[in-house]
Every structure is written in structure tokens, then in C-alpha cells.
User: Which sequence fits this backbone?
């Protein structure tokens, strides 16, 4: 499973009382399927905001639950919703800006 650097940072150092929107792609070979993952997201206190192609769920979840989310069976990719955003550099979430 691929967990983006931004999601790993959130899982390692979550902010209390803050939520995050993630793209969660379910593995094609995962037999219980996307609906099963969606139900497990809800048991972690998250919500499925949208369903996209290729078994991808748009999930809103507390940052404190991201680590548990990443441990769920059947996941192929977990990344922030910024990962699919095209910015001027085309680097998406992997860009770290120096803010002074």
C-alpha cells in the first residue's frame, strides 16, 4: 500500500480537533470491496463524501484517526485530496512551501 508523505505526517503527528479530506483507493483484488471499506471508515468516525472511479473514496476523517485508517485491510493508496490538484509546478501535495 502507498501512503503519501503528507498522510504519513498527519498519522505520525495529528492535530487534535482537526479533520482532513483523503483519497482512499481500494485494492482491485480486495474481495469484500469498496462498500466494506466505506463502512469501516464510518466506524472510525469518518464519512465518505464522494465515490470516484477506480474504487476511490473521498473520505473526511479526524486527523487522530488517520493512523487507524491507514491500517485497514484492502487499501491500495491513501493520499490527501491535494494529490490530484494541479498546481503551477505540477507537484501536488509533495511541494513544501517556505512561508516566512
Assistant:
Amino acid at each position: 500500500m502507498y501512503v503519501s508523505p503528507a498522510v504519513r505526517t498527519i498519522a505520525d503527528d495529528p492535530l487534535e480537533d482537526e479533520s482532513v479530506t483523503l483519497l482512499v483507493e481500494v485494492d482491485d483484488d480486495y474481495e469484500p470491496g469498496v462498500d466494506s471499506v466505506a463502512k469501516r471508515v464510518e466506524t472510525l468516525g469518518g464519512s465518505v463524501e464522494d465515490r470516484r472511479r477506480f474504487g476511490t473514496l473521498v473520505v473526511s476523517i479526524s486527523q487522530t484517526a488517520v493512523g487507524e485508517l491507514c491500517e485497514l485491510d484492502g487499501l491500495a493508496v491513501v493520499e490527501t485530496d491535494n494529490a490530484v490538484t494541479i498546481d503551477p509546478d505540477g507537484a501536488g501535495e509533495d511541494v513544501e512551501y517556505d512561508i516566512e
